[in-house]
Description:
Blueprint: E1 2-5, H1 14-21, E2 27-31, H2 38-52, E3 55-59, H3 72-91, E4 96-99, H4 112-130, E5 136-140, H5 153-160, E6 166-170, H6 171-176, E7 190-195, H7 215-220, E8 228-232, H8 236-249
Parallel strand pairs: 1-2, 1-8, 2-3, 3-4, 4-5, 5-6, 6-7, 7-8
Amino acid sequence: MIGFSCPPYCLRPFKEVADLVVGKFELWEIVAEANHFLPGIEKQIRELKETSGIKLSIHAPFSDINIAAFDEPTRRYSVKVLLETFEIASRLGIGVVTIHPGSICAIQTFDKTRVVALTRKSLEEISKKAGEFSTAIALENMPEMRFAICKTADAMEQMLDGLNLRVCYDIGHANTTGQLKEMPRLKRLFSNVHIHDNIGKRDEHFTLGAGNINFKQALKSLEGYEGDYVLEATSLESGLASKKHLEKLL
């Protein structure tokens, strides 16, 4: 199934965005930030599911939290926000929630090893609770950015070793880190796949075909994967153009 996700749209009213997406995509990944923060829209999501039949997934909050925060109360709060997200998603019968690893912010640039260790600590705490939720929890591979960790297949594998967590494979991110050939070896763990284009230097979220990713080859490397494909776009128009491109390849 091909889905749609648009981070900027979380700044708009939920119903307004729902009206744009329903009928154009079978799946909508709700970015649970700003006006789409789940505790405030749970009732609206339930009504949408009941009236439209659209399939939903969730991208958990990432802007105002950091599961690798050096300040322990902040780290614990960040984990709490994610656990609340999983709980609401489970109540709503949503199958997948995508999460980010911890981030390297300000003073953390001086101790990146600690960022990795704290991310692992937080994910261990989440993994212990994962069995309480019906939703799959998928850690996303990150793009080539100075604040990012978990950018390679090796880093993802090490981070998730022994945990009851899955992977959200982001093809666009993998293109910026030279990991298009490496990441698919983890496809046994893939719960969903994010797709967008770029020219291999920055996480630009281009319409498919506007960058340099060979999507025919990228999709061939996912042979056997039976989950959803979520088009991450900066607008509905870009998402619809990417959908047409992807439909020709699948």
